[in-house]
């Protein structure tokens, strides 16, 4: 998601949505060794697991997500774009890039309604868009999906259709709980920020993520789920948020992960960071005592995730220029920031970044920028894509579509950041596709299919004791990202709050 200070001139975009599209596990490549047995295993060859810094399929071959965010968490709570194009043609567009994954976002509110009294898509559209426009948009959706949807189709049946089409075209699905109350995410005032926030009920959240994990058992291609998108400081929300600190994060994430694992033990579980998913320091560096997440004493331990801590946990981060304030000078600066945020858990971190105490797969599940003919060449964006290719990290760009049914009260909202045009028919930036995304997807596929290399002998202690010690002596400097970026996000949040009060 991205949040924008609409009443201010500059657009403060933060982000969201992920899709992935990734790789053909059946195609062995040169990356990390020869894949031999994979060709025989039927796609998707799950369940997936983790091995050191890699995600792997059932045969132990590397899987690297390369994909895109497909939002389905905004007011209507139906995957976007279906009034313009069919599910099949949209998935074909994704496939044409060589992507292998989709980050499909959902709102907890949808599950609240399902468990109370579910509604058909006809009502979903008129509730969100009004009788006249809702009916008109529904008719377009039905016209594009004859024989597939009718007025009584439910929202979850639309999700089912998206997952089925993705399976048909060999695209993995990653579910992401984006918000509690449906709507554009993620300004700190929206009541969706943190456990206990106005709309962020702990119980409903746990029920919702477990419900979707369980429901997704009937999708052959649901491989993973993100517990919550962009946790952030709750401000002026009208709720009673729990303390914004590392201990709350750790305890609640564990509870959510336990419930998801109980509902569907096959899924990889993605943990997103603090400060709008810009900081995983406490997981990666055993460093709970940072100024903005003070009060925490818990130490991250895989053993606390009973039965799945060793092979199901994946880390995710987001990277947007609004979170950093100024533009980076060069790729070294981008590499260092991404490593400090948590990519160091891949190993091979920038030379001046503290070595991570443990290894995890780390994915950039959101990044994005306006899809015009030149923005992708800016240092920040060019270097981010280069980083993902060089480090063989998985990713999902934000977002797929060029418009939303409704966003922040504007219907048929145009999305200049969308890979696709307003009517989801073509690429907005053929230049970025050709010179940025195709080479990146290609590089990510090259990382798939091979065997993970054996972990380096050094610093691979399973119990983490030695790692913790070395993490302890190599604390990172105060100039690192956690300290430079987070306050900016907070500053932006507070500015928004103050301006809202004034207006
Ligand atoms: C209904 O749709 C029309 C055409 O897209 C748009 O101009 C109008 O603002 C919409 N109505 C509302 C209430 O948003
Ligand atoms: C939708 O459900 C209503 C009420 O059960 C029924 O009258 C109507 O025929 C259904 N519509 C379709 C297209 O099946
Ligand atoms: C976390 O680790 C530190 C350093 O090893 C230790 O002092 C602290 O007591 C630990 N916290 C908990 C809750 O065990
Ligand atoms: C990462 O480090 C390992 C050893 O720790 C090395 O074998 C590998 O080549 C490195 N990869 C890159 C991309 O530098
Ligand atoms: C994809 O990678 C292969 C080698 O791995 C290379 O030959 C080809 O040119 C690449 N294509 C693009 C679009 O980068």
UniProtKB/TrEMBL annotation:
Residues 1-32 form the signal peptide. Belongs to the glycosyl hydrolase 5 (cellulase A) family. Coiled coil: none annotated. This is Glycoside hydrolase family 5 domain-containing protein. It comes from Apiospora rasikravindrae. Residues 84-401 form the Glycoside hydrolase family domain. Residues 442-478 are annotated as: Disordered. The keyword Membrane does not apply. It holds the Pfam family Cellulase. Keywords: Glycosidase, Hydrolase, Signal.
């Amino acid at each position: 998601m991205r949040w924008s200070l609409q009443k201010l001139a500059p657009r403060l975009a933060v982000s969201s949505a992920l899709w992935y599209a990734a790789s053909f596990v059946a195609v062995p490549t040169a990356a990390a060794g020869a894949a031999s047995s994979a060709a025989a295993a039927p796609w998707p060859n799950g369940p997936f697991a983790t091995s050191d810094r890699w995600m792997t399929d059932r045969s132990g071959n590397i899987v690297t997500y390369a994909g895109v965010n497909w939002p389905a968490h905004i007011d209507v709570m139906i995957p976007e774009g279906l009034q313009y194009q069919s599910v099949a043609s949209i998935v074909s567009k994704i496939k044409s890039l060589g992507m292998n994954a989709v980050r499909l976002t959902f709102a907890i509110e949808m599950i609240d309604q399902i468990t109370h009294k579910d509604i058909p898509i006809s009502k979903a559209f008129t509730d969100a868009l009004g009788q006249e426009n809702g009916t008109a948009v529904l008719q377009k959706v039905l016209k594009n999906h004859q024989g597939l949807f009718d007025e009584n189709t439910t929202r979850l049946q639309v999700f089912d259709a998206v997952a089925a089409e993705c399976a048909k075209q060999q695209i993995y699905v990653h579910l992401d709980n984006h918000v509690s109350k449906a709507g554009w995410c993620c300004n700190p005032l929206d009541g969706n920020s943190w456990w206990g926030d106005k709309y962020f009920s702990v119980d409903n959240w746990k029920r919702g993520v477990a419900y979707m994990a369980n429901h997704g058992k009937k999708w052959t291609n649901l491989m993973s789920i993100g517990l919550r998108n962009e946790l952030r400081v709750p401000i002026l929300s009208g709720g009673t948020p729990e303390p914004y600190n590392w201990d709350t994060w750790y305890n609640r994430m564990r509870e959510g992960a336990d419930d998801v694992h109980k509902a569907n033990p096959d899924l990889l579980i993605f943990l997103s960071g603090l400060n709008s998913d810009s900081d995983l320091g406490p997981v990666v560096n055993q460093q709970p005592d940072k100024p903005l997440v003070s009060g925490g004493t818990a130490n991250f331990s895989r053993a606390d995730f009973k039965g799945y801590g060793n092979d199901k946990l994946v880390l995710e981060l987001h990277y947007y220029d609004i979170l950093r304030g100024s533009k980076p000078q060069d790729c070294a600066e981008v590499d260092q920031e991404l490593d400090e945020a948590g990519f160091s858990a891949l190993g091979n971190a920038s030379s001046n970044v503290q070595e991570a105490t443990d290894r995890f797969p780390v994915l950039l599940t959101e990044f994005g920028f306006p899809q015009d003919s030149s923005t992708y060449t800016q240092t920040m964006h060019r270097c981010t894509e280069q980083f993902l290719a060089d480090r063989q990290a998985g990713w999902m760009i934000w977002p797929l579509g060029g418009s939303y049914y409704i966003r922040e009260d504007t219907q048929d909202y145009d999305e200049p950041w969308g890979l696709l045009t307003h009517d989801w028919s073509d690429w907005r930036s053929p230049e970025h596709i050709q010179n940025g995304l195709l080479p990146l997807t290609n590089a990510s596929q090259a990382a798939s299919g091979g065997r993970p290399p054996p972990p380096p002998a050094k610093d691979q202690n399973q119990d983490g004791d030695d790692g913790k010690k070395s993490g302890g002596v190599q604390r990172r400097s105060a100039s690192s990202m956690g300290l430079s970026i987070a306050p900016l996000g907070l500053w932006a949040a507070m500015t928004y709050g103050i301006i809202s009060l004034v207006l």
